[in-house]
Amino acid sequence: MNTATKPNHIGRKISRIRELRGMKQEALALELGISQQSVSLLEQSETVEDEKLEKVAKILGVTTEAIKNFSDESVLNIISNSFHDNSVLNGVLYNPTFNPIDKILEQADKIEELYKKLLQAEKDKVAYLEKLLDKK
């Protein structure tokens, strides 16, 4: 599958983007409400009607322009540029824009608040039950 031979072969571009997204033809077919064989035919088509292309683009999480302008060379450029960036290691951003310890402390505070609410609910329940027993 070389998109260089036919640069405007929309079906092949859909196929490559789907593969890069880690999506199988069956999954795309399910989302489109068509058969896997229909997706295969779609990916073999040099042109795709705009309405169907919009649906496919939405499912793949890209724009129709991204599909139309897609090339393997541009993907390789993006990947190679990413690995030359000092904040990327094995494709993972390792300089987060937040302090992980702050996030842990926020979660601890939320857990503590939930625990206090649960404890208060239990105290209220016990008080209500004692009140009921006193009436008898």
Automatic annotation (TrEMBL):
Q: Which InterPro entries did the record assign?
A: Cro/C1-type_HTH, Lambda_DNA-bd_dom_sf
Q: Which positions are tagged coiled coil?
A: 101-131
The HTH cro/C1-type domain covers 14-67
The organism is Aestuariibaculum sediminum
Q: Which UniProt keywords apply?
A: Coiled coil
In alphabetical order, the GO MF annotations are: DNA binding
Looking up CDD domains in the UniProt record yields: HTH_XRE
Membrane-spanning segments:
none
Q: What is this protein called?
A: Helix-turn-helix transcriptional regulator
- Classification via Pfam families: HTH_3
